[in-house]
Amino acid sequence: MHRRLARFRVSRPGNPGRIAATAAAAAALLVLPSSSPAQDGGPGGEAATTLDGVFTAEQAERGEEVFSETCARCHPTSRFVGATFQPSWSQAPVSTLFTIVRTQMPFDNPGSLDRDEYAAVLAYLFELNDLPAGDRRLPASADSLRAFTIRFGTPGGGGAPPRPPPDR
What we know:
Blueprint: H1 2-6, H2 18-31, E1 48-49, H3 57-71, H4 82-89, H5 94-104, H6 115-128, H7 142-145, E2 148-149
Parallel strand pairs: 1-2
Helix pairs in contact: 3-6, 5-6
């Protein structure tokens, strides 16, 4: 995974590769998930997924604030819902998404947010995709997040149809 992330390292302002790096980092958010499933944590010993309520409503609310303050100037929420986002991230470990966002964003100062803020942004993205909130906070470390797999739809069922992107 480190080699994969290294390809998308963001250039500092003033470097000639800045535009290409921006495009590469944005593309990474949409198409770079790993295919390895989580190993443990769900009900009955199966892998925990984002359908199991792995974040709190309060965490998603905080994530919306962080997204509005830090991310929305470059990223419309429509890029992170439904058919634009779900096919690329379904079955990926949450840790992969967390690592990419934490090491690449915000573009002008990657890694500058607190780890809890990055986890809150992920909780917000999950909420945008109609994933259920629960009573436990999404962890703020890649090691802990390896226990969770991104899944969309309804527990035990097919998938719910994607909702239209919010106007934000």
